[in-house]
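Changelog excerpt

This revision adds worked examples to the README so contributors can see how folded entries look when concatenated. The first example is reproduced verbatim below.
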Amino acid sequence: MTKSSLFVLLTAAAFLQGQTQGQTKQRPLPAGPAKSIVETACTTCHELTLITGGSGHTPADWKLLVERMVAAGADVPKNQVAAVTDYLAKGFPEGNVPKAVIVPGPVKITFKEWTVPTIGSRPHDPLATRDGYLWYTGQYANVLGRVDTKTGEIKEFHPPTKGSGPHGLVEDKDGNVWFTANSKGYIGKLIPRNGEFAEYKIPPDARDPHTPLFDQKGILWFTVQNSQKVGRLDPKTGAIKVVDVPTKPSNPYGMVIDSKGTPYYCAFTAPKIAAIDPNTMAIKEWTLPNPGARPRRIAITSDDVIYYADYDPGVTETSLHCIRAPFDRVPGLRCADFSHAELIPEERVIWNTGAVQNVVGFSVKNVRLAFQSSDCLERVLSRNARHSQALNESGTIETFDIGR
């Protein structure tokens, strides 16, 4: 197995862990024809306890998980995939999984799904571009996909470097789509009109670029999660600068840029929120008072109010926190479990998806959200929703509880 395949499998294992952690007591692997395959193929990058200690899944969800693991490099013979899926579905059916809590309010929501062409690709980090298309990264299958939301047509683009593990997406002013090659250590650019790719290699010790974002001057900023770095790329010259984060490990994750051009990011495991000086790349950190906090995804409104979701697998309550940027203090807050969250604000609009497939909104007027779910992309349209709690204007953090 190549190093890049192992890296992608570790990412897949992290996803599985987020879906199964801390739910039920461990159970032994039952007897069955696929037991030996599970014992070998499913222990390449994670322990069996992620299967035996989880809450189980429906047959459809096990099918998706097995497809993803195989796409990521798990050594399961093609003619045994169905047997492995059936074995896991029967041996570990879905147990006591928390159900979504409906928040009262005049909310009208519709869902639309598009099934992506490549099975097991794990569509990731959707991006709605100005021309009306919806883009996604197929991280496990080395794919960038483009959805025509009017016709449903999906076109896939394959980066020339195999096993790139495309992750985050962002659009530049010319309509080009940039991405982080999470498994191959480069920043990529796709020109949609002709399908041409360009690659910008980052230093070898910055192995896993994560979240990309353009500032107002056209500079591309990015986090490098497990390598404990952040970086910037000047598309005009190709110049790249990468710096170490002050706290290690802190796993810099989601990123936003305020109206003055200052990048902020979540230090996922520190736990801290940090700002990068756009000129010197000096980093200032704010420590969150709860050592168990796990700030992961982050969003910012047009008036520089920062929101972040706190992902703590050990906590069952869910909260959203808000800070006005720039900020000098971080008062008390509560932990949350937002899992693989996508926060996309329009004015004072915040949407999020949770580990139990919740979709939640705050102070919504008219918002469009795209998020990942199984092997489909989904779009949510909502109008005239309201949340009873006002946002804080004093620069402090507020907590928005949305239930379990």
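The second example, added in the same revision:
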Amino acid sequence: MFRPLALIAVLLAGPAFAAEPTPEQIEFFEKRVRPVLVEHCYSCHGEKKDKGALRLDTRDAILKGGDSGPALVPGKPEASLLVKAVTYTNPNIQMPPKGKLPAEHIAALTEWVKMGAPDPRTGKTTADNPYDIAKHLAAAKDHWSLQPVKLPAVPKVAGASRVSTPVDAFLLTKLEAAGLTFAPPADKRTASRRRRKRWTPSRRIHPRTPTRN
């Protein structure tokens, strides 16, 4: 009477999506599986595009699958849509659509699913629908560019008599913090000379030089 229970336990303990892949499994994935996915799959099933609502660039996305269901069944390549697609066994599901993968690539994907599809990629999909504009706007509502314009309070300075515009007040605040102030106003002759220099071919402007109090 205990044999059926034991059989069930064995089946439940069979190949599954490994939470912690072994070093050997990680090496297999990185050398033989990830390059195939990057070269042949990510362009249509990645971050920029998710054809059929299917992404293959993260572990969670593969398990979640797309419009046709999960992309794979760990430990069961014969029941996995990914394997069926790359082997062209189903005329309605063939990936990549432009041509069948080389035999060694198909063998690598099949073996990977058979061993339980160990996947070291722990990243999660950024969103169920990466093109959901409303969701992106809601997430970006705190960005500075979307905030209403506010006029800052004009700071009070010790040398208020030297302030002609609010901009002067902000500049003088920093200067006074460093023990500096505006240079004294230029006399007419100096101001005239500065104007002539300002409009020389180099068009270099000579600003007022701060001086210590």
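Reviewer comment on example two: The CA atoms of residues 69 and 143 lie 36 Å apart. The chain is about 40% helix and 0% strand.
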